[in-house]
Amino acid sequence: MPITQSAKKALRSSAKKRIINDRIKKAMKEAVKKVTKFAKEKNPTEAKKSLAAAYSAIDKAAKKGVIKKNNASNKKSGLSRLAK
Fold it and tell me: Which domain holds residue 60?
């Protein structure tokens, strides 16, 4: 357990940040799963529609620092190949 006042505050703020980061990461993963589901069902029109939402979620995660920029680019290129 933290002892000093600043350590207690750091613990509170990191707990809040973890919740926010988990929410962003979950939204991104759900959007990616939706695209892969449509791609595996051989439904390219729906896959391309959900691709825009997945790009948006990935970009938001990269902007917030939940994932790194190159990781976001890698995910986006993989999804675009899958959705074709």
Answer: 25-83
